[in-house]
Design brief:
Two copies of one chain form a homodimer. Chain A is mainly alpha-helical and 171 residues long. Chain A has two domains: 86 residues, Winged helix-like DNA-binding domain superfamily/Winged helix DNA-binding domain (Arc Repressor Mutant, subunit A, Orthogonal Bundle); 81 residues. Chain A contains seven helices and two strands. A two-stranded antiparallel ribbon of chain A has the order 1-2. The longest helix of chain A has 32 residues. Chain A is elongated, with a radius of gyration of 21 Å. Chains A and B meet through helix 1, helix 4, helix 5, helix 6 and helix 7 of A and helix 1, helix 4, helix 5, helix 6 and helix 7 of B. Chain A binds a DNA duplex (30 and 30 nucleotides) through helix 1, helix 2 and helix 3. Chains A, B: It comes from Actinospica durhamensis.
Chain lengths: 171, 171
DNA sequence: GCCGTATGTATACCGAGTATGCACCGCCGC
DNA sequence: GCGGCGGTGCATACTCGGTATACATACGGC
């Protein structure tokens, strides 16, 4: 979903080709999410199939150039207007794991929570360090980084909450 | 990933068959995440292929029964011991969208943030209502629900933060 | 008897993501 | 000069998560 709309957004700015789109895509998210080049081509293929982009031929260097279509621009505008809903998101792996852990017998939930919290805390420290160190932060990059920070904090808060609830339940 | 380990966890408790495993899986997460039955069978197939579960034949009613293998139990124990890392998680759709929005020209970031926050707030209210209304809450269910609440709160906090940063940048 | 629903298994299909193959080109060292 | 090496660029094969659907059986109500 995201790579698809990312490519559309980049193509709305100006036409481009696969390899270049990957670089722009990664740069626009502050190189936080590496994108496999193969995925760019398959996504471009699907977008073309669905009439959201079109091949315009080749440029002087022989690159296969794509441009956005009217239909693609509409889809992009819709996407920006639509909020991201809970339903579109994948399952929360951690919540799932803990739900399983408290359901099936023989799992030490306290240890699990403890391990996860230690991990989350070191992740949070690492992210904070990255943020502080950044000399001339790219806006998109720092927004993504801060999203990860807020999420890590929420995870730690939730783990504290879980620990309290589970301990109270057990004793 | 999660369905795979969920099935392993359920099978460690006792052997079972596809349809039953789906019901148990959904119940263990408080019916928060519906699982398509087809996925259960394909996952069981892959688990069998990899030697993590094994068919034991049929029970009295003719159900195809699977049981966990030693190797499967090891993998499950490993999974519970391993923390969930950032890398295993999928891209954050919302962070991605905003990173794109501030990068490509012609997107009204303020409106986007506003729309998303309204949506997140109504989601949060809905989740809170669910939590309060729950008469005899299942532990796993309420943990999952609370995870969603903590995440929605973090999202709203982050959106406030983004708004402040973007406004400051623009004016 | 027959229709609708729940139970149960299995397969086809699609999209996201990864690995890999293949070709071209420019640079650097010998 | 030339042979290796790394960057650029395109394309395909493959796996996995997830959905839809086909198909069969059993059971209960009209």
């Amino acid at each position: 979903m995201s790579v698809k709309h990312g490519i559309l957004a980049l193509l709305r700015d100006r036409p481009g080709y696969g390899y270049q789109l990957r670089a722009e895509f990664e740069e626009s998210t502050g190189s936080t999410w590496p994108v496999n080049i193969g995925q760019v081509y398959t996504t471009l293929g699907r977008l073309e199939r669905d009439g959201l982009v079109a091949k315009t031929g080749e440029d002087a260097e022989g690159h296969v150039i794509y441009e956005i279509t009217e239909s693609g621009a509409r889809e992009l505008a819709d996407w920006f207007a639509r909020p991201i809903t809970q339903a579109q998101r994948p399952r929360d792996e951690l919540a799932m794991k803990l739900a399983l852990a408290v359901t099936v017998p023989g799992v030490d939930v306290a240890v699990l929570v403890q391990t996860q919290r230690e991990h989350a805390q070191s992740t949070l420290q690492e992210l904070t360090r990255l943020k502080v160190r950044a000399a001339a932060p790219h806006l998109a990059w720092s927004l993504v980084l801060e999203a990860q920070i807020f999420q890590a904090e929420a995870e730690i808060r939730w783990l504290d909450h879980v620990e309290e609830r589970v301990c109270r339940t057990n004793g």
